[in-house]
């Protein structure tokens, strides 16, 4: 759920928000014909992904104007825009794409209702401490957590920081 929605948000940023910020209106009449990057999908399929981060917006760029606008879609500039004190829109798109990839891969790691993935009990039981000097590792931890309401409450409260 988080992976697919982050990927969808990245698509919105790349295909609608970033072109709009650069003065190109994206609507129902032109969203299929307006490319978000001048080279289209060629860098993606050739593995030349760094092209998507080249030529970022300049400091003089103002939202909705073409002056100072670059062609980059996914950057890792960091920091804030000096005039608006906002995060760079292309950095936000890059962040959401990275989160989408991580969550989609992690979502396939644990067992689903269809038997795809790993079983949490097997993962915990297989863990052995380094050097084997700290006991049995996590063997039996899954049963302790699933059978103890006190443990579940403690983990939930710790996760919330309470």
Automatic annotation (TrEMBL):
Q: How does it sit in the membrane?
A: Multi-pass membrane protein
Name its species.
Answer: Onslowia endophytica
Kindly give the Pfam families that the UniProt entry links to this protein.
Answer: PsaA_PsaB (PF00223)
Q: Name one GO biological process term.
A: photosynthesis
> What keyword terms does UniProt attach to this protein?
Chloroplast, Plastid
* Location in the cell: Plastid, Chloroplast thylakoid membrane
What would be one Gene Ontology cellular-component term for the protein? chloroplast thylakoid membrane
Stored InterPro entries: PSI_PsaA/B (IPR001280), PSI_PsaA/B_sf (IPR036408)
Name of the molecule in the record: Photosystem I P700 apoprotein A2
Plastid as a keyword of this entry, yes or no, is yes
Q: Does the keyword Signal apply?
A: no
């Amino acid at each position: 759920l988080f992976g697919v929605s982050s990927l969808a948000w990245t698509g919105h940023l790349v295909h609608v928000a970033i072109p709009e910020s650069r003065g190109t209106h994206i609507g129902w009449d032109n969203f299929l014909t307006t490319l978000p990057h001048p080279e289209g999908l060629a860098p993606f399929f050739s593995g030349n992904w760094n092209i998507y981060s080249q030529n970022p917006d300049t400091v003089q760029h103002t939202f909705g104007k073409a002056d100072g606008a670059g062609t980059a879609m996914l950057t890792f500039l960091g920091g804030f825009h000096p005039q608006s004190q906002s995060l760079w829109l292309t950095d936000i798109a890059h962040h959401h794409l990275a989160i989408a990839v991580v969550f989609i891969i992690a979502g396939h790691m644990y067992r689903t209702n269809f038997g795809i993935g790993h079983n949490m009990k097997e993962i915990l039981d297989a863990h052995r401490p380094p050097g084997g000097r700290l006991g049995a590792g996590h063997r039996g931890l899954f049963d302790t957590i699933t059978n103890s309401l006190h443990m579940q409450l403690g983990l939930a409260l710790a996760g919330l920081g309470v």
